[in-house]
Amino acid sequence: MIEGQENVTWSDWCALADACEEHGVETLFRSDHYISQGHELGSVAHDAWTTIAALAARTSTLRFGTLVSPVTYRAPALLANAAATADHVSGGRIELGLGAGWMEREHRAYGFPFPKMKTRLEMLAEQVEIVHRLWTEERVDFRGRHYMLEDAPAQPKPVQRPQPPLIVGGSGSRGSVEPALRFANEYNTPFVSPEDAAAIREKTRPLRFSVMTGCLIGETRDDALERARTLFDRRPRETTFEEWLPRVEAVGVVGSVDEAAVQLRAYERAGCDRVMLQHLLHTDLEPVRLIGLELAPALA
After folding, report:
1. pLDDT at 38
2. Residue 57 confidence (pLDDT) above 90
3. CA-based torsion, 75, 79, 80, 85: positive or negative
């Protein structure tokens, strides 16, 4: 899982996708943001769905998805079409993650609406339903509080049938869980411990359940800690490395391949069906190799 707004250039995206395919990583997820959290003027932030469609055209096996597309950025019919179009470009290798959105600074900067969380969750519920129906019905009428569709011809249909996987992201609140249970295939929650993941998992049965969390992996623990130090030093912080690292380890995967496997088994016991590993040092392709060739086989 790549934070695409943090200066991931097109050549970086191509290198990441190539490394995933070469080393057997099955799915490449990306965030959907238009502004960096670290360096606004110095970090390129390419559009998520344009990037996914372009990468889909130059790959053959890799699956792609967003974690997650905020409902505040696009009308649901536009999003359904964009994701379905990418599904055609890829020959059926697309997954769509949807969420309520959170980065207020980004919304203010570019003029996206940013209503209160209650309203954004209402928008999420309506968008999940509309996207699902546009992918699975012939025509759609919808009259909600935030969106209206009038006899909409539901085109283009995705390649994947009955639909591409639809993922709802959230923290386990009723506002995100209920629409997921009605219309989605998977529920995803970010940056939680295995214990907290287990509690959220119980609310989301029988959906597929996943966690997105940070990953700093190496051949040895020293290698992983060297990457952790590099990440820590990328921007000024109001804490020391020794204070920062335990907080990362509490909700992330940090260490050697063997240590990472043990940590991921804890998420498996908590009920996770898969984990999306956030790779922030995106120009460092060695962790991609380790995940694909060593970590995944160790867990299989």
Report:
1. 85
2. yes
3. positive
